[in-house]
Amino acid sequence: MLNIALFGPPGAGKGTQSKLLIEKYNLTYISTGDMLREEIVNKTPIGIEAKSIIERGDLVPDEMIVQIIETKVTMNLETRGILFDGFPRTIVQAYILDGLLLKLNTSLTCMLSLEVPNDDLITRMLERAKTSGRADDNLDVIKVRLKEYENKTKPVIEFYSEKGKYFPVKGVGGVDEIFRSLCQTIETTVPQNFFNIVLLGKPGSGKGTQGEILARKNNLVYISTGKMLRQEIANDTEIGRIAKPFMERGEIVPDEIAIKLIERKIERNPSAQGFIFKGFPRTIVQAYILDGLLRRIDSRVSCMLNLKLTTIESIKRLNNRAKTERSRPYDASAELIINRLEEYEKKTKPVIDYYKRQCSFFEIDGAGTPEEVNFRLEEAVKEVNKQLR
Description:
The protein has 16 helices and 10 strands. The protein has 389 residues and is α/β, with parallel strands linked by helices. The protein has 2 domains: 4-188, Rossmann fold (3-Layer(aba) Sandwich), CATH 3.40.50.300; 197-388, P-loop containing nucleotide triphosphate hydrolases (Rossmann fold). The strands form 2 sheets. It has a 5-stranded parallel β-sheet with strand order 2-3-1-4-5, sandwiched between helices. Helix 1 (14-25) crosses helix 8, helix 10 crosses helix 11 and helix 12 runs parallel beside helix 13 (284-295). The longest helix is centred in the last third of the chain and has 25 residues, at 334-358. The protein is elongated. The mean pLDDT is 86.
């Protein structure tokens, strides 16, 4: 999981940058300020009590904060992580956050701090006061809030610095410029938490179609060894010439070729949030190879999704595909189709048993329309995200 605390004094621009970060990294947004204001608008018991506290420029008691945060987090378990805006503001809240995340079997990845001079902060908030309608946007309250920040919140920096999780980011400049700095810090300094899916299934089960849809919906990089090999063959590269006879017979290409292609794909996507592997691994040896490839980026397979389809349905689909422009050389005859299915039974099914022991495993009904199958796959992905939390 990617759990970020966006830190900085009042007026530093945390709200603006949070919106950009949650969209880019698919995070649940936790803004104690926004949630408290919602409680106030709805005139809940917490809101009524919090209103007078906020208008004085004081910090709301931790008991209130914990209650609304826990409710929000447990209602949003399908994202890649959490972005905390305005929390923690004290050492006590830092320990509280550790406890909350421990309940979810995770921890804070980093604290990113927007650094802005006080004069700029006051100017920003006074300008905001002209349109915000917020009672705490006046000079006297602003000064109280900044002093509160200095006295109680700055020590949080030391707390996370000691853990190696504190990263200051210049908060002065254009919105896009600051956002790029935040992303660069996340992608170059903070360890990546990859989400990696292995998508398996018989030939004709729809792995290619579903793999691309899953990658697009979950912001992952799609890695299809078959697709990459066909491109190498079309370009008449050295790899393509070696792979071509294996592909034409519907056989597995030598492992060293697949390794080169997968390594290259991973290296060309350094900021990826994760990968979907379609068509690899197809043997138990390749499963070990994939483990090794992922360890190089300090990652592992998160889950395996197996599209289940009857042999008869597989033959029908492959035979129908042979009559279209999507036809593959190994769709050309019943003999080649049967050869591929036999290859799958003999070499690929042990891979399924391997992943059942190694990670989250889901068997998905591959029959039906692409939309129906994708719905089942997405439900499995949501479940994995909950487990990883």
